[in-house]
Amino acid sequence: MKRLVLKSLAALICASALLYAVDWIVFRVRVARGTAFDSVVVNAYYAVPQKTGKTEYDFQSSGPQPCANAVFPHMGYLPCWYLRRHTDQEIKL
After folding, report:
1. Which residues contact 79 (CB under 8 A, 6 or more apart)?
2. Residue closest to 18 by CA, chosen among 68, 67, 72, 75
3. Domain that holds residue 58
4. What is the count of structural domains for the chain?
5. Alpha-carbon distance 32 to 63, whole Å?
6. What would you report as the CA-atom Rg of the chain, rounded to the nearest whole angstrom?
7. Which of 93, 64, 70, 91 minimizes the C-alpha distance to 82?
């Protein structure tokens, strides 16, 4: 049983590493073609804690945020698929 778990864990780690490597190669090809980056409009707001224990929300204007057309984050940019699903960004102070 222990051997099966170890083999399964090793296979999962290898599959994850292979997926990341393929994603990185595809991303580098897109960088060369100029299609690797996009932008998504994000609504940012600050969550300011009050002395009473409540939280005050200060909404900022919407603005475009650059993102990477990939499955994983690359070059410091979040993936576009993630930003499109999380357009509200909370900044905690």
Report:
1. 67, 68, 69, 70, 71, 72, 73
2. 72
3. 2-92
4. 1
5. 27
6. 19
7. 70
Amino acid at 36: A
**For residue 16, is pLDDT > 90?**
yes
What pLDDT score does 90 carry? 87
Overall average pLDDT of the 41-49 stretch: 91
pLDDT score of 9: 96
Q: How far apart are CA 80 and CA 70, in angstroms?
A: 7
The one-letter amino acid at 62: S
CA dist., res. 69 & res. 78, Å (int): 9
The candidate with the shortest Cα–Cα distance to 74, out of 42, 30, 43, 10, is: 30
How far apart are the C-alpha atoms of 7 and 66, rounded to whole Å?
39
Average pLDDT over residues 78-89: 94
